[in-house]
Amino acid sequence: LKQISDDKSSGALLGAFRGEVVGVGGTAALNVTMGRSPATFRLRDRSRIRLLVSRGASIAIEVRAHSSWPQAIVPVAVVPRHAPADDPRLHHKTTDRSLYADALTRGGTFEVLMIDAAGYLTEGCFSSLFVERGDKLVTPPASRGLLRGILRQSLLDMGEAIESDLRVHDLEKGFFIGNAARGMVAATLSR
What's the CA gap between 79 and 102, in Å, rounded? Predict the structure, then answer.
């Protein structure tokens, strides 16, 4: 984790941020410009990059090794979500992951799907949910309270997925979980 700026003017700081990932012969470089302070990272291996912005407008860039799914078919548990659909933590990816850490602890599996108070599936702790119906993938509607992930939104935008309510019984014939960093994988209910 490397802090690259401590400017207190968040509007100016965010407005000055520019970045690009450039691939060159099996390596990648992340060029970041914060106003007049450039930072360059050369990545030789497949990596995950996370940009963190604090309330005080400090910026950090975190580079981690790429992670894949632990197995070809991932067993997941289903647990109640302890937050209403309008909880801001559900709509923004933040460092406050307590809601998700609690769900993972209760589920006891690598990934956990959550259900809302009405019994509808919402999302995983770090993945979106997809069920195949005909030639479309079905994913829970954002109105249920979930992060509109990059993979999920891309599939919706391309017309490959549609939003519709899902219940646990909809998972009986198989389903997928996925995110932009790990991709999509088949999943099964842990019994």
Answer: 10
